[in-house]
Amino acid sequence: MAGVDVEIEGRTISLSNLDKVLYPSGFTKSQVIDYMARIAPVAIPHLTGRALTFKRFPDGTETNGFFEKRCPGHRPPWVDVALGPGDRKGGIEYCRIDETAAMVWAGNMAALELHAPMACADDLDVPRALVFDFDPGAPAAIAECCTVSLGVREVLDSVGLQGWCKTSGSKGLQMYVPLNTPSATHEAAADFALAVGQVMERRLPKQVTTIMAKAERPGKIFVDWSQNAFHKTTIAPYSLRARPEPTVSTPVTWDEVESCADGDIELRFTSDQVLERVDAHGDLFEPVLTVEQELPTPG
Fold first, then answer.
1. Pfam families given for it (predicted)?
2. Cβ-Cβ contacts under 8 Å for 292 (sequence gap 6 or more)
3. Is the pLDDT of residue 85 over 90?
4. Residue 191 burial (CB < 10 Å; 0-12/13-18/19+)?
């Protein structure tokens, strides 16, 4: 199909191959772009100013796709870049998504997955949030992730901290603990996440592990504390995932987490459902951007 020029907020973008099917469910590139344009108002605050890693699937989600850290040289002049962790001095220029047009441009490149660091590019040493990544080892699934996250919530509550959950859009669940203070460090966030994970490991030794080795994980929830490292990224809120259907990393309420843990609901949302949720509830993850919290001092 020939390219189509569209104008978004004064930016002109040439879109191509809009009829191309990117998901086995039949979801097309046109539908990907439509979702990314419509979700942009709530997604961009969680992306703006960050050094983003794209995972692109130009031939669809049944292929392996590829990660792209370095922002391509053919980007439009209005797509900003941000310096981030790299393999040489000076770092890598990553793409930034600070406006709807940039989001649509990413969609046109089949950048289905947007992976974001915990820190903003203007202060890479200071994470804005701590993340717990609950990764289920089969036959454990998201219901077991929810059970563990509720236990983590109790631990956080005991030290005066709050967290907000979102689905990974794949198999797991993630909890963000907003920090938003200049004293936060990646090392302290990782150490605290590991300590909390180890508390859960002691409480539920048959259900939880903090050990990364695959052999330790079948039937357990791996509390991945290492996602707090300086160079790591996590799937961004509202990002699509490269699954058979266009599932999305979706913010959820604690009531939904409790219902999922009880087996009453399954926390799995497609792009259409996420747009409906945002229309009804707004951005459930907004507090992660604004709430200020200090991690407890060791000792």
1. LigD_Prim-Pol
2. 178, 179, 180, 181
3. no
4. middle
Name the amino acid, one letter, at 59: D
Go through the chain and tell me how many residues it has.
299
DSSP-derived secondary structure letter, 228: G
Q: What is the pLDDT of residue 2?
A: 57
Domains and CATH numbers, the chain: 4-117 (3.90.920.10), 129-289 (3.30.70.3300)
**Which tokens sit at 209?**
């592990």
Residue in this structure with the two tokens 């993630």, named with its chain if needed? 174
> pLDDT digit string (tens) for 90-126?
689 999 999 999 999 999 999 999 999 999 999 999 9
Q: Which position has the higher pLDDT, 36 or 84?
A: 36
Residue 292: CB atoms within 10 A of its CB come to 9
For 160-187, what is each residue's pLDDT tens digit?
999 999 999 999 999 999 999 999 999 9
Is 210:166 a contact under the CB 8 Å cutoff?
Answer: no
The secondary structure of 92-155 as a DSSP string is EEEE---SHHHHHHHHHTTEEEEEE-SB-GGGTTSBSEEEEEEEEPTT--HHHHHHHHHHHHHH
Phi-psi region of 17 (alpha: psi -120 to 50; beta: other; left: phi over 0): left
Q: Which uninterrupted H or E stretch holds 177?
A: strand 173-178
Distance CA 279, CA 236 (A): 19
Q: State whether the Cα torsion 152-153-158-162 is positive or negative.
A: positive
Provide the 10 A C-beta neighbour count for residue 22: 26
